[in-house]
Design brief:
By secondary structure, this protein is mainly beta. Helix content is 9%, strand content 46%. The protein is built from 2 helices and 6 strands. It has helices at residues 46-52, 74-77, and strands at 10-18, 30-43, 61-66, 80-84, 90-99, 104-112. Strands 1-2-3-6-5-4 form a 6-stranded antiparallel barrel. β4 (80-84) and β5 form a beta hairpin. The longest helix has 7 residues, at 46-52. The chain starts with 9 loop residues before the first strand and ends with a strand.
Length: 116
């Protein structure tokens, strides 16, 4: 079964924190976009919620993207976040289910509450 391109209706930027030191020695901690991809954001099913407990108990949804070797493992997304390019919703990334045969990756996420 191949992923339906029409279901990937959100543009998200996957970002990684840059922990370089500046010229004066201070910690930078800026987020840098490493990829911008089409995605679908959905809540977890009961089975997926059980699977996500392997990563963390904070998971409340998943982001599905086309298969991308750069993000195909939990180590690859560790410390990353996803930002909805339009709505500016932010998600912490926790783990990956690799569905390479279907051309997809399911990334377990938790939505970061927006500051008011």
């Amino acid at each position: 079964m191949v992923i339906d391109a029409g279901s990937l209706d959100l543009r998200i930027a996957i970002q990684r924190r840059d922990s370089d030191r500046g010229l004066t020695g201070e910690q930078s901690n800026e987020w840098h976009t490493v990829a911008t991809v089409w995605a679908a954001v959905t809540p977890l099913t009961a089975k997926e919620m059980e699977m996500s407990n392997r990563f963390t108990s904070k998971v409340d949804g998943k982001i599905t993207i086309r298969f991308n070797r750069q993000f195909a493992s939990t180590q690859a997304v560790s410390g990353c976040r996803a930002v909805d390019v339009v709505d500016r919703r932010v998600f912490d990334l926790h783990g990956v289910i690799n569905r390479q045969r279907e051309g997809a990756l399911d990334i377990f996420v938790s939505e970061v509450p927006m500051a008011r």
